[in-house]
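Section 5.1 Outputs to date
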Amino acid sequence: VASNTIKAGARSGQATVEIRIEGPPQKCNVLFANSYDASEVNITVNCPEDGNSSITDYRIEYRIAGVTKWKSTDFSASIPQPFVVGGFAPFTAYSLRATAANKYG
């Protein structure tokens, strides 16, 4: 999606064009995952590029290390971080990943 703004310059024949490209957010990073009990993890997420549109939701996905199927849980961006994700088994290694969504995806 492109948004164009055209303004007439001080001299005849001059114009300024501003183009703003908007799209879905880019890849997010799980910055911090800390466990305060055996089954819950507090997760902080950073998405460096929001696609020039406010992030509306986050999805945290997790799986037991080496297993192919991911489980997921969704959070609204209006919920303050860290996000608390539960359902983990004690003494088990997990892989985590996060994605963000805005009005474009």
